[in-house]
Write a structure and sequence with these properties.
heterodimer; A: alpha+beta; Arc Repressor Mutant, subunit A; 14 strands; B: alpha/beta; eleven-stranded mixed β-sheet; 16 helices; binds zinc ion
């Protein structure tokens, strides 16, 4: 449905309405095998090469629970401050779709493994950072579906396609679905909170080591529920569920768009339809998907092929000891260790660079140097390419090496920038780029001495001023030497050589 | 006196003969293949088998002979032929579950019990007929035509495992595998005069068993004698990591129990007659044989008391909510997308249309009835009233068993209220058909072990009657002790096995 009229502005809408959000995030666990069979979860295999009777739903085959997936689910639950069920069952969610081999999904319904938790996110406001408490309704285990590829149509959607291809490699990969309680915050920060929540969750999942949580690979998928109610009222409005919002930026944009769209519907005296909506990255809009005329009846019932999961309290306590430091505490600790200001630390976190900086420091850099590269040159390149920072093409070890070369006097700032550029361009490691581009500082004393002599000879008047004690004139000669060596000289050493010659 | 034909011998006898070298496994397989050819015609004969693979059976038998010749130690049933219910997957034979929707489907894998039997050197002759997806009590719901009862070819052989029971009673195989969701091993055993054991739920792996109702299904051994059933039970039972519901505990020593029972001493055994399983609706001849069988147990030293299980009367309606609910979900995978029948795929129709057409054409009436019932029972707004209530009844039935087993070691009842009824008599009356499983269903709901043993012929029609014995969870051995004791007493009373009275089918 194209937008018929211009939407009211966000600031106009939030003056009159309070948005209520709910986030549902699916995380693909990084287990070696699938949720209920021994098939590989490796990404990118030949279609239907990682399947067996169980994940193909062949008659007679049965599921068996992957204990590592249960362990990951419990750790996620604990990290989200959830209660861990002493006894919980899987349930069957029944609906027909060709990418679902059994025509039911093994999930959890009224007995999730983790429930009633919370987390905190921090967003910027005009009054400085604001920390928001977000309630977690539940986290439960389920299996992923296969993938449909609709062929022969213009859009790649099922409408207009001549046929469909099915790949069941993904069918049965373990998923954890994490559902928030309704999120009600100051209207102006609502979209930012949604983004910060997903971003924080991603960091948490990575810190737990249970998934790479790469949104661009579908390892983490977000559905955003949004409804509006008139400012100051308490009755919830009708919500829409925007599916598959798969980047942090899109989360913020999609929530903003839905808030504005629903306001325009309400302004026109119409009612918001309860439905799922599709997010379009290109236009920045959502469009109507399936209308939920009545809530779809999935006929949930306890999965009779599996016994209940009953994690012992000892096991849960033991898993609690394996949790990483909570993100907020970790952030405070790193800020102190690195001696960054609030503002600097905020930039680091927003850029998603904290971990990269930490690794760069471990590899031998100092904090300021590491921050300079990751938030400067590398961030710029990553943004240009639309790639996440850690996929920009340079590693923390590379960055630390560049810093070491600077410290050793083998590179100056200007050369170092060129080295980083080269690494980002895929030319190899810092040392390879230095070698290939011939970027090392000219430290050959005789070559440098010749250049200094030539510079002095070339500007006798300047030399005379220096001999006369006018140190301000040294810069001109240094500049000439640097020019002659195409910048590959250590300016400090050049200065020393000039003064040695003119003061002797 | 001439030596009985090979196909008339028990599994234990055949195993001994093969092990001693008296006969070869190939000769034994050949005798059974010929017997099948003689009596199993689909149109006029018993029609126990949907698929016979004589070549493969003979090849397997030859392997057993070769191993014996090489001096390898053989399992206690090596070289003994078996009829496998067509609901158990076999990587080398089609598996249809009696349904058109799976006609010709070749599974890519063996069920766990198939694998175990192969490893034991058991010779699988072929796959036996059954009610579609194991739903029925007569084998008339098979998409491939009914099986006929060897005692009277105009009558049903029980169901759903009528193919397996008929194969035993017509001496086409000395051993068979059945599966029991509400009585599908025990009721066919009763109406054919054979032995059928439903082990404790979880005692035998369900991996590779095409599911009817997952929480009720249990595969088990079928045979003509109690010892043969025990020998087969020992082969197929045990924990399987591929089946999460299988029990990780030692298998009760059922062979030892059968041997002990054959001594005919039941002193110290307490037997409870279930008050609620008898009376109105039970055929007079069935009740008469049942009463006599209980008297025999008393004579063998058992202490017999009456026990009440008040919730058993609710078991049937609860079962007919739980079973269809699970069926509606288990059978959703038959959608023409990945295997089996596909109707209407003309390049223009959508996947959903093809699914609808295929399911419409591929499922029989009883299957559709249960899918619809189950879909309804699980619907939101009805779930609590139907599925939820039924689960509560299930708990109450289990408690009845718990209370009863505090007073007695085993419970007994008739296996089925009637003897084998004529083919066609109840096809249009599903409720009458369902009542056949009145006595057997409680054990499926509670998951405890149960069995049916032959206890004579009903006076009014001369057809077999079964004694139903129920034991606690994981006390499967008690069934064998009681069954073997009863068997030795009755066989000597009769002057030979009951099955000696089966009429020889015409043409054989
Ligand atoms: Zn698999």
């Amino acid at each position: 449905m194209p937008t018929a009229v211009a939407l009211p502005s966000f600031s106009d809408v939030i003056a009159r309405f309070d948005p209520v959000m709910g986030m549902e995030v699916h995380v693909e666990l990084g287990t070696i095998t699938k949720m209920f069979c021994g098939c590989s979860t490796e990404f990118g295999g030949e279609p239907n090469s990682q399947v067996c009777p169980t994940c193909l739903g062949l008659p007679g085959a049965l599921p068996a629970v992957n204990q590592t997936a249960v362990e990951s689910a419990i750790r996620i639950g604990l990290a989200l401050n959830c209660q861990i069920a002493e006894h919980c069952r899987f349930a069957r969610k029944n609906y027909f779709y060709p990418d679902m081999p059994k025509n039911f999904q093994i999930s959890q319904y009224d007995e999730p493994i983790a429930y009633d938790g919370w987390t905190e996110v921090t967003v910027d406001t005009e009054d400085g950072p604001r920390t928001v408490h977000i309630g977690i309704e539940r986290a439960h285990m389920e299996e992923d579906t296969g993938k449909s590829l609709h062929v022969g149509g213009a859009t790649g959607r099922i409408h207009g396609a001549s046929h469909s291809l099915l790949d069941y490699n993904r069918a049965g990969i373990p998923l954890i679905e994490i559902v928030t309680k309704p999120i009600e915050v100051e209207p102006e920060i609502a979209p930012a909170v949604a983004r910060a929540y997903v971003s924080g969750l991603r960091d948490l999942i990575r810190a737990l080591g249970v998934s790479d949580a790469r949104m661009e690979l579908g390892q983490m998928r977000c559905d955003a529920n949004v409804s509006l109610k008139p400012s100051g009222t308490t009755t919830l409005g009708t919500r829409t569920e925007t599916k598959n919002v798969n980047s942090l930026r899109s989360v913020e944009r999609a929530v903003t768009f839905e808030i504005r769209r629903q306001a325009s519907v309400l302004d026109a005296g119409e009612t918001v339809i309860q439905e799922t909506r599709h997010w379009h990255e290109d236009t920045g809009e959502t469009t109507s998907g399936r209308v939920k005329e009545e809530a779809e009846d999935y006929r949930y019932f306890p999965e009779p092929d599996l016994v209940p999961v009953a994690p012992s309290r000892d096991w849960v306590d033991q898993l609690r000891t394996t949790l990483p430091e909570p993100p907020a505490a970790r952030r405070a600790r790193l800020q102190q260790e690195w001696n960054f200001t609030d503002l600097e630390m905020r930039d680091v976190v927003n850029a998603g660079a904290a971990e990269l900086i930490e690794e760069t420091i471990v590899a031998g850099s100092d904090a300021a140097g590491a921050k300079k590269w990751w938030l400067g040159e590398i961030s710029r390149t990553a943004n240009e390419r639309g790639a996440p920072l850690d996929a920009a093409g340079i590693t923390p070890v590379d960055v630390a090496r560049v810093e070491t070369l600077i410290k050793e006097g083998a590179l100056n700032d200007k050369l170092a920038r060129q080295v980083v550029e080269g690494v980002l361009a895929g030319e190899g490691s810092p040392d390879q780029v230095v070698e290939a581009r011939g970027l090392a500082i000219v430290s050959d004393e005789s070559a440098l001495g010749t250049a200094v002599d030539e510079a002095i000879a070339g500007q006798p008047d300047v030399a005379e001023k220096i001999r006369g004690g006018n140190m301000g004139a040294v810069g001109a000669l240094i500049g000439a030497v640097m020019k002659a060596t195409r910048g590959q000289a250590d300016a400090k050493r050049v200065r020393e050589l000039i003064l040695e010659r003119l003061n002797s | 006196m001439t030596e009985p034909s090979l196909f008339r011998r028990t599994a234990a006898e055949l195993a001994d003969s093969i092990a001693s070298g008296e006969v070869s496994a190939v000769e034994v397989a050949q005798a059974h293949v010929e017997r099948i050819a003689a009596v199993d015609d689909a149109e006029t004969g018993v029609h126990a088998f949907l698929h016979v693979d004589a070549e493969r059976a003979l090849a397997t038998a030859a392997e057993v002979d070769a191993k014996r010749a090489a001096g390898e130690r053989l399992g206690p049933l090596a070289g003994v032929p078996l009829a496998l219910k067509d609901v158990v997957t076999t990587a080398d034979m089609p598996t249809t579950a009696g349904s058109k929707i799976l006609e010709g489907w070749q599974p890519p894998y063996d069920a766990t019990i198939t694998r175990k039997m192969r490893e034991a050197g058991i010779v699988i002759l072929g796959k036996t007929n059954m009610d579609e997806f194991a739903m029925g009590s007569s084998t008339e719901n098979s998409a491939f035509g009914p099986t006929r009862n060897p005692w009277d070819l105009s009558r049903i052989p029980g169901g759903s495992g009528g193919g397996s029971s008929a194969a035993l009673a017509s001496f086409e195989a000395p051993l068979a595998i059945g599966t029991d969701t509400g009585g599908s091993i025990r009721q066919p055993a009763a109406v054919t005069g054979t032995v059928g054991i439903k082990p404790t739920y979880g005692g035998v792996s369900r991996y590779g068993l095409i599911a009817c109702a997952s929480s009720l299904d249990q595969a088990g051994p079928c045979a003509r004698t109690v010892l043969d059933a025990a020998l087969l039970h020992q082969v197929i039972a045990g924990h399987d990591p591929l089946d999460s519901t299988s029990i990780d505990q030692p298998v009760p020593d059922v062979v030892a129990a059968a041997m002990r029972g054959a001594d005919g001493d039941l002193a110290g055994l307490r037997v409870g007659v279930v008050k609620e399983l008898g009376g109105e609706g039970y055929q007079a001849g069935v009740e008469a044989r049942f009463t006599e069988a209980v008297e025999v147990l008393g004579k063998l030293g058992a202490e017999v008391v009456e026990v009440s299980c008040p919730h058993f009367v609710y078991a049937l309606p609860a079962y007919y909510l739980i079973l269809p609910s699970e069926v509606s979900s288990n059978l959703a995978r038959f959608d023409a997308m990945r295997f089996g029948l596909r109707i209407g795929d003309d390049g223009a129709r959508s996947a959903e249309e093809v699914m609808n057409l295929t399911r419409g054409a591929g499922f029989g009436a009883e299957t559709k009835r249960r899918i619809i019932l189950g879909t309804y029972a699980l619907s939101s707004g009805y779930y609590d009233a139907y599925y939820g209530q039924a689960q509560k009844v299930r708990t109450l039935v289990s408690r009845d068993f718990d209370v009863a087993f505090e007073q007695v070691d085993v419970l007994v009842s008739p296996t089925a209220p009637t003897t084998a009824f004529p083919i066609g008599e109840k096809v249009d009356d599903p409720l009458a058909m369902y009542k056949n499983d009145l006595c057997t269903i409680p054990s499926n709901l509670a998951g405890n072990a149960s069995a049916s043993f032959p206890c004579g012929l009903a006076g009014e029609d001369g057809l077999p009657v079964g004694l139903h014995v129920m034991a606690p969870v994981l006390a499967d051995d008690r069934l064998y002790r009681v069954g073997a004791a009863l068997e030795q007493a009755l066989v000597s009373e009769w002057g030979g096995p009951l099955l000696n009275k089966v009429p020889e089918p015409a043409g054989s």
